[in-house]
């Protein structure tokens, strides 16, 4: 029997990290181990798929950039158009994995399963979690049931929808969760089982911008000033995502500043800093009056990625809150 062909695209991160001490899982240098060494450390891969690997980047994912996103998306698209490629695995740092997953989810750059995986402990750690996560990710990418389920995140024997997965812990190996929805499947040795299909698949792929709009995140908390918002507007920002309290509650001082920003043509979107839950959309979005567009259940970082792509595809959305709210309702 011919094994499925799976492409591994490496970008660095903790999964490719190393330390001078095997006993240390917190003090290490990310992105030092090449993808060839990561694969050699998991001999069981040869029984799962025919692997081809490409070192797309070698960075700590805290330093993710628009340029690298564009390069990664291009390589995903390139490999997905090869007739015999069953799936693509991306090794990634955990710090910005949820943002890259959201980007690839909305961009729809592949017709085959795209599986992101990572590690919370470096490759040299006494109890490194990267090798099993990599093996599980390849198992999922090669599995026929992964087809049509969009971008996936596989870590700690769980399968998450890329749209929903977030990093929810600083150091635990089960650091990733899908608040409000939970994982969509599991991996246990050779068993890959999907328990449900993700319902929020993109209805239309969004192109990556040629010129990325300036979109930033601001937070609401006790007695904020308006200086940050005013400075961002003065700098030419095109969109602002608010990490609001509770169900999208924003301090009155910040509401006034954001309403002024909206009148200046800046898109304003409310998310929540709580970590879970849906921000109720206004009956009639009117940002200049403080009725800001809702990001739904997207956290501020995923909402920013969505707003980046929305404004990149259609800059007029910044001045059309009704259509912008419709966009967020559908993703």
UniProtKB/TrEMBL annotation:
**InterPro entries referenced in this protein's UniProt entry, alphabetically:** AsnASE_II, Asp/glu_Ase-like_sf, Asparaginase/glutaminase-like, Asparaginase/glutaminase_AS1, Asparaginase_C, L-asparaginase_C, L-asparaginase_N, L-asparaginase_N_sf
What GO biological process term is on the record, naming one? asparagine metabolic process
Look up the domain of life of the source. Answer: Bacteria
Q: Which GO terms describe its molecular function?
A: asparaginase activity
The record places domain Asparaginase/glutaminase C-terminal at: 215-314
Q: Which Pfam families match?
A: Asparaginase, Asparaginase_C
L-asparaginase N-terminal domain sequence ranges = 5-198
Tell me which residues bind substrate.
61, 94-95
Q: What residues make up the catalytic site?
A: 14
Query: According to the UniProt entry, where is the signal peptide?
Result: none
List the keywords (alphabetical).
Answer: Hydrolase
**Which family is it part of?**
Belongs to the asparaginase 1 family.
Protein name as annotated: Asparaginase
What is the native source organism of this protein? Answer: Cupriavidus cauae
What does the record give as the organism's lineage?
Bacteria, Pseudomonadati, Pseudomonadota, Betaproteobacteria, Burkholderiales
């Amino acid at each position: 029997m011919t094994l499925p062909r799976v492409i591994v695209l490496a970008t660095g991160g903790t999964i490719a990290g190393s330390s001078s001490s095997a006993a240390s899982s917190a003090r290490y240098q990310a992105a030092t181990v090449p993808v060839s060494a990561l694969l050699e450390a998991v001999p069981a891969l040869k029984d799962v798929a025919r692997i081809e690997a490409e070192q797309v980047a070698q960075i700590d994912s805290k330093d993710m950039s628009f340029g690298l996103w564009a390069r990664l998306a291009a390589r995903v698209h390139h490999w997905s158009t090869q007739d015999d490629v069953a799936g693509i695995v991306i090794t990634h740092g955990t710090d910005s994995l949820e943002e890259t997953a959201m980007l690839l989810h909305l961009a729809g750059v592949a017709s085959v399963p795209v599986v992101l995986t990572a590690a919370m402990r470096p490759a040299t750690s006494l109890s490194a979690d990267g090798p099993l996560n990599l093996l599980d990710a390849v198992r999922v990418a090669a599995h026929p049931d992964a087809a049509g389920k969009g971008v996936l995140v596989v870590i700690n024997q769980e399968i998450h929808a890329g749209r929903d997965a977030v990093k929810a812990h600083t150091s635990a190996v089960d650091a990733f969760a899908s608040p409000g929805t939970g994982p969509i499947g599991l991996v246990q040795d050779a068993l890959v089982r999907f328990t449900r299909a993700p319902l929020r698949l993109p209805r239309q792929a969004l192109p990556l911008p040629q010129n990325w709009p300036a979109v930033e995140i601001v937070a609401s908390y006790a007695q904020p000033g308006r200086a940050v918002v005013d400075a961002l507007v003065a700098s030419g920002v095109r969109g602002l995502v608010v990490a609001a309290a509770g169900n999208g509650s924003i301090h009155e001082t910040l509401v006034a500043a954001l309403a002024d920003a909206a009148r200046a043509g800046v898109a304003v979107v409310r998310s929540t800093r709580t970590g879970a839950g849906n921000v109720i959309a206004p009956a009639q979005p009117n940002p200049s009056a403080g009725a800001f567009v809702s990001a739904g259940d997207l956290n501020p970082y995923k909402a920013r990625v969505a707003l980046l792509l929305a404004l990149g595809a259609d800059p007029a959305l910044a001045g059309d809150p009704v259509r912008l709210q419709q966009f967020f309702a559908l993703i």
